[in-house]
Amino acid sequence: MALRTVVKVSGITNLSDARYCAGMGVDLLGFSLDATSPDFVSELAFKEITAWVSGVDLVGELGNIPASEAANLLTRYPVNYLQTSCVNVLPSLAALDVPLILRADFAENDQSSLRAVCEASRSYATYLLLESDHVVLTEFELSFLKRLATKYPILLGFGFGPANIHLLLDLLPVRGIALRGSREIKPGLKDFDQLADVLEAIETPEP
Question: What is the structure's pLDDT at 192?
């Protein structure tokens, strides 16, 4: 399975999502390591889930966890990337020698703030993940995102669906997109509609 662009799926909490995403060719699977998050995945659950998937990079989503705790978490969660929501901890996390992702909320920052965040992350973050509750992007926002994506390695986590994903990928030079996992209705039973619609829309034929 091949996808048109890099895809990260955040907030993985169950084996059903993990196996489905890996089978669809998703590049990055994110697991919350923040015990205060509703998406928190215990060390045991992480091991049980990741033992069944291959061919994907695992992302430890720290949220606002301080850098001082990250080294200990890495010994318990053998991830390929760390993701933080705190730009100020990037220099300390970089010392752990693990690729980094910085998450920022597009709606909570004005243009000047976002540009400052992007610039501050330039030397440290492999990707800059932009998320938001926005459903529709305005022309003004699209223009701003295009300028950002031209300079910085953006993963776009909002503003798209199966109907417009190709149009956005044509317009914006983003490095990839980000989706979110969801909880199981009951063990082994999942509704994959939201994930599947976008992933199937960006499938490409195998060479």
Answer: 56
